[in-house]
Write a structure and sequence with these properties.
- The complex is a heterodimer of chains A (527) and B (371).
- Chain A has 527 residues and is of the alpha/beta class.
- Chain A is globular and about 75 Å long.
- In chain A, helix 1 runs parallel beside helix 7 and helix 11 crosses helix 12.
- Chain A has a 6-stranded mixed sheet, sandwiched between helices. In chain A, strands 11, 12, 13, 16, 19 and 20 form a 6-stranded mixed sheet that branches.
- Chain B has 371 residues and is α+β, with helices and mostly antiparallel strands.
- Chain B has a 7-stranded antiparallel sheet, with no helix packed on it. Chain B has a 5-stranded mixed sheet with strand order 4-3-8-6-7.
- In chain B, helix 1 packs antiparallel against helix 2.
- The two termini of chain B are 28 Å apart.
- The chains are: A alpha/beta (527), B alpha+beta (371).
- At the A-B interface, strand 22 of A face helix 2, helix 3 and strand 10 of B.
Chain lengths: 527, 371
């Protein structure tokens, strides 16, 4: 029997599941997420390998879904400091980089922002050439001051020459420890959104490295030699090498996973799924069994991007959320004690009043020792409980497209915080294995691959070029492990490269399909 | 009625403008940020009704020209519109009483608000087409013989050009070429009119109409009303099609974005395919041989769930969309209006047939007869 391993690293718990070829749950376990991440994963792996019917050898695919990057942004923690450079002056000066960012995130991430001469016109010509003095000044100001750099050039998806050249210059000047993200590798046309995503990607480098390398090390230690994938924002899986360069793509992979897991476990096709973790709550919508995608620009921690993502709302509410009483007004979160809940929560003998303590105080959850709740905590618990419920109800209301009540599926370990009656819900479902819905969701996610190639429409007709692109991306997805008969092209984009001869067009395509049973023969990495 | 334009009004106008922009006119987000930044810096400008412009005072139009896709990528330096507006005043030796919009659909609806805030003059609650069109001469003033020139245009680099032409077709042809050379997008001041002419040759209450559409959508969303039917009610529109984008051929060519989107029908449109031709704006919507709508009527693609308008550059493979048709202003439905901006002008050998207005075909016939 061949197995696949699904792991979901939340802010509080690391969940692991083993599924067989028919997606039946063979084993599940929960371990505490640790500060170094990898020992928590190791613990989860150790626990699951101890269960009957599971051998390290039988695991051929491992899928990791992690909210590390999302949490880093929503909590503004462990973010790298970023030097933000836009190549575009004298154009684009009307809206400076990070103009609409929340001020606290802006201050935390962007140490320096520049708009310097450079970038290209739509046809690939230069807007302005490099200004050597200006670049020397940028280097002087960034040297030793930032951990990473984000470079966004106007029309870089059409002509990446300036971004690439500046990236090389900075790499040489700032040293190998400063990671550099180039916007044309992150997104497409749409300067402000692409720039935002590029800066976020840069800010996440440290967190990603810690999280993903930790997982690799942990698997190795347990003798698991499986092909490793990471969940990404469109709900598909990518290779770990790719994820290390583009950690922004793991943002909001958790919600896709919990939505897919929620659909799989509840059997419902149309519902709202509420996933309460230790730190955040994500609320999303299932339509016909699939996550409803947002057609609009997606906000991440208050920042606008143009990623394709499930339409969802994420708030700082979880089992470890801090409860504060501020002049009679009870505040819940957005900060959380996270993985330290079982040390710091009141019912566990700690000193911090958390959302979990509220659930114990009102008698909904039975954890730890309710005798350890303080008088003050017991007194404000009902108020905090109402506040928690209202936070979720507001999310549900904002996502609903009509006034009619809809079924609500509660998943995630923290969903024990929520009552059985929620405004706007026609029924509440708490499916079996609700506590590991994310890990199941990532384990059953489709694997994807993408190509990015320039075609000459004088050499090929447009139809031929598109067919060729579809064929190539489908083949690459098959090599990455997808079941050939079920591969679908999910994205296809053409960008005219007017400055190149022969009617050159850049075609970006992405395909996805469920994993084929059995060990993948090729080691071609999925992207 | 005179009123002050708030940041919220700009937000609503950007959304409503994108509905009337029929896919063109540029990304409302960038236009919105620019106008809002101008209001933050210089204060709220006044919006005045068309009829309040004194007959002998002049109004001028500030507008962008080029490919809207360029605007989401190469956003403006910021002072181009104010620079060309001032330059045209100097050239004419006259002060403008107010600034007006060429087209409320898209960024050209919000650029005049930024200019008005900056120069502390009113913006007129009117425009020249009640939608968006991809060429300078495709405006109601053309039907009244108003010349677009003298016209001044500039790019962000500091290059500027003064145009004087024999007719508005030449203005379009030369200005388009210049905009293309300037990097695909330029700002211009043009169509200087006195108050008396403007009252005849432009369309009143169009700017406030975009605010009303945006507000209707915002409130429908907040109150969980049926967003599509609210949108159709406020615009007098009809639902033309519903489906998923399965092919997209889009290129920037000769200063325009041209192409075609294929939408695979769903639900009651299952089994059908809609072919949408666009040149900056959506021009013709067809299913097979059947023509659902053509210019000068308005054809807009909106997100199926939220009814948020999707511009030409925002079209993506796989998006689930609804296509709506909105009847154009009755001045477009005259023989001269149809000759100017109907399907023939864009190279389609199909007659213009007004789309049915809400309430059924009988009313639509009555409406077209009346127009």
């Amino acid at each position: 029997m061949q197995h696949r391993l699904g792991i979901d690293v939340g802010g509080t718990h690391t969940d692991a599941v083993i599924l067989d070829e028919k997606n039946t749950l063979v084993a599940k376990t929960k371990a505490r997420t640790t500060a170094d991440v990898s020992s928590g994963i190791e613990q989860a792996l150790k626990q699951i390998l101890e269960q009957p019917g599971v051998e390290a050898d039988s695991i051929v695919h491992a899928m990791l879904g992690t909210t590390h990057c999302t949490n880093a942004i929503t909590e503004r923690k462990h973010l790298s400091t970023v030097g933000v450079i836009r190549l575009g002056a004298p154009a684009t000066l009307s809206i400076p980089p990070l103009y609409s960012w929340p001020p606290d995130l802006h201050a935390r991430v962007a140490k320096k922002t520049f708009i310097i001469d450079g970038g290209h016109e739509y046809d690939g010509k230069e807007i302005a050439s490099f200004n050597e003095k200006e670049i020397a000044g940028v280097i002087r100001q960034l040297k030793g001051k930032v951990e990473s750099v984000a470079i966004t050039g106007v029309f870089s998806p059409v002509n990446a020459a300036h971004e690439t050249a500046l990236g090389e210059r900075l790499k040489a000047a700032l040293g190998p420890d400063v990671s550099i993200t180039l916007s044309h590798e992150i997104g497409s046309i749409g300067l402000l959104e692409r720039e935002n995503a590029t800066v976020l990607n840069s800010a996440l480098m440290k967190t990603a490295n810690l999280a993903f390398s930790g997982f690799l090390a942990a698997m190795k230690k347990q003798g698991i030699h499986a092909q490793l994938f990471l969940g990404q924002n469109d709900g598909t899986l990518m290779s770990v090498d790719y994820a290390l360069c583009y950690p922004i793509l793991t943002i909001a992979s958790g919600p896709s996973n919990s939505l897919r897991g929620g659909a799989f476990l509840s059997g419902l096709k149309d519902a709202i799924v509420v996933d309460v973790g230790g730190t955040t709550t994500d609320v999303g919508v299932l339509v016909g069994g699939f996550p409803r995608e947002s057609a609009l620009a997606v906000d991440i921690g208050g920042v606008r991007t143009n990623f394709r993502m499930p339409d969802l709302i994420s708030i700082g509410l979880g089992g470890g959320s801090l409860i504060r009483n501020e002049n009679g007004r009870v505040r819940v979160g957005p900060d959380s004690v996270g993985y330290k809940l079982e040390e710091e929560g009141l019912v566990f003998g700690g000193e911090t009043f958390t959302a979990t303590d509220v659930a114990v105080a009102v008698g909904r959850a039975h954890l730890g020792d309710s005798g350890k709740l303080t008088k003050a905590a017991i007194a404000i618990a009902p108020k905090a409980d109402r506040e928690i419920q209202q936070l979720v109800e507001r999310c549900i209301d904002a996502l609903k497209l009509s006034a009619a009540a809809v079924p609500v599926v509660l998943v995630g370990g923290g969903s024990i915080l929520l009552p059985d009656k929620i405004e706007g819900a026609s029924e509440i479902r708490r499916p079996n294995h609700f506590d590991v819905a994310n890990a199941i969701g990532v384990a059953i996610a489709p694997v994807s691959a993408q190509i990015d190639r320039v075609f000459s429409y004088e050499e090929f007709s447009r139809e031929q070029a598109l067919d060729e692109a579809r064929k190539q991306v489908t083949e690459k997805t098959r090599l990455a492990g997808a079941d050939k008969s079920k591969i679908e092209v999910v994205e296809l984009e053409e960008i005219a490269m007017g400055y190149l001869p022969g009617h050159a067009v850049r075609i970006k395509a992405k395909a996805a399909g469920p994993l084929a049973p059995g060990r993948t023969t090729s080691r071609a990495s999925a992207q | 009625m005179r009123s002050r334009i708030s940041v919220q009004d700009v937000e609503d106008a950007a959304v409503g403008g994108a509905i009337l922009g029929t896919g063109g006119g540029g990304d409302p987000y960038v236009g919105k940020l620019m106008a809002q930044r101008a209001i933050e810096q210089y204060g709220s400008p006044e919006m005045i009704p068309l009829k309040e412009i004194p007959d002998h005072k002049i109004v001028m139009i500030a507008a962008g020209i080029g490919a809207p896709t360029v605007l989401v990528e190469k956003i403006l330096r910021g002072d181009e519109a104010v620079t060309v507006f001032k330059a045209l005043q100097n050239y004419l030796g006259k002060k403008a009483y107010a600034v007006m919009s060429a087209e409320v659909g898209g960024v050209n609806g919000t650029i005049p608000i930024a200019v008005a805030a900056h120069l502390k003059i009113p913006v007129v609650d009117a425009d020249c087409m009640g939608r968006a069109f991809p060429e300078i001469q495709l405006v109601i003033p053309q039907l009244y013989g108003v010349p677009a020139t003298p016209l001044i245009m500039a790019d962000e680099k500091g290059n500027s050009v003064v145009l004087s032409t024999i007719n508005n077709e030449w203005t379009e042809s030369i200005a388009r070429a210049v905009a293309s050379k300037m990097g695909g997008m330029a700002l211009m001041a043009l169509y200087t009119m006195d108050g008396k002419t403007a009252k005849r040759a432009t369309l009143p209450a169009m700017l406030s109409f975009t605010m009303k559409i945006g507000k209707t959508l915002r409130i429908a969303r907040q109150q969980k009303l049926d967003i599509l039917s609210e949108l159709l009610k406020v615009t007098q529109g009809v639902r033309l099609f519903k489906g998923k984008i399965v092919d997209l051929d889009r290129r920037t060519d000769k200063g325009h974005v041209r192409g075609v989107a294929i939408i695979q029908g769903s639900d009651d449109f299952g089994g059908q395919k809609l072919n949408m031709q666009f040149q900056n704006e959506n021009l013709v919507a067809r299913t097979g041989e059947k023509v659902l709508a053509t210019v000068p009527d308005l054809i807009t693609i909106v997100d199926q769930d939220t009814c948020f308008p999707i511009t030409t550059e925002g079209l993506k493979y796989g998006l689930r969309v609804t296509v709506i048709g909105i009847p154009c202003h009755k001045k477009w439905r005259t023989p001269a209006g149809i000759a100017l901006a109907g399907p023939h002008h864009f190279g389609y050998d199909i007659p213009y047939k007004p789309i049915a207005v809400r309430g059924g075909t009988r009313r639509s016939h009555a409406a077209s007869a009346r127009n």
